[in-house]
Amino acid sequence: MKLVRIERDGTAVWGVLKDDEVLTLAGAPYERLTFDGGRLPLKQCRLLAPCEPTKIVCVGKNYYDHAMEMGEGVPDRPILFLKAPNTVNRPEGEVSAPSFVERLDYEGELAFVVKKRAKHVKAEEYRDYILGYTCLNDVTARDVQKADGQWSRGKSMDGFAPIGPLVTDEVDGSDLKIETRLNGRTVQSARTSLFMTKIPALMEFITASMTLEPGDVVTTGTPAGIGAMRPGDVVEVEIEGIGVLRNYIR
């Protein structure tokens, strides 16, 4: 199943994507699917971020090559940080940094959306809590992150988490090709099988400390190849079986 959120008559509506049509839902799909009879051509829809998270839980340095390029060593456990709800941005949306930001980076990542409250989840039960997988760009004000000595401000500026274009349960997140392109040039390329901490273990580790709510997002880390974006750039995160998340830097 492929889930999207679209704008209809100024209101956000959930839908199921079937071929080139969106079959709209009466409410969020976390507990059940209730169709409202609406049917819209996808090309006529304005896609929104396919979730409404109370928080985005991020994993730092989950690929060995990225940990090495950051020059701070390989962590012995997952490094967690949060992006606030104000960071959520839509597919095809614009990303704009405050004027004081000197370096704005892309970080293409696989993310998953939580479908029910999750606390003290065992690794072997992780699938029961995942609505589906999506693409996320962990946009980062790199100079701010380094100057602050912690990551909150540099990671949580408005619009710094484009998500989408959809959420799907039709892929296996353990081994997917992920690629980031900047103005059509491939700048990141890896497979999620290279995660240092796999998704089942991440779910157990995260929920040992915090409760995840329906709609929350867990994003799994970025591979090597991070770099700067500038006004006028187009950045695309493509993940096998999910699609392309495209955004414009302003």
Automatic annotation (TrEMBL):
Biological-process GO terms, alphabetical: carboxylic acid metabolic process
Fumarylacetoacetase-like C-terminal domain mapped to chain residues: 55-249
Keyword Lyase part of the UniProt annotation: no
Stretches assigned to the Rv2993c-like N-terminal domain: 1-50
InterPro entries: Fumarylacetoacetase-like_C, Fumarylacetoacetase_C_sf, Rv2993c-like_N
Signal peptide: none
One Pfam family linked to the record: Rv2993c-like_N
Superkingdom to which the source organism belongs: Bacteria
GO molecular function, one term: metal ion binding
Record's keyword terms, sorted: Hydrolase, Metal-binding
PANTHER family in UniProt: ACYLPYRUVASE, ACYLPYRUVASE FAHD1, MITOCHONDRIAL
Family: Belongs to the FAH family.
Protein name: Fumarylacetoacetate hydrolase family protein
Species whose genome carries this gene: Pseudoflavonifractor capillosus
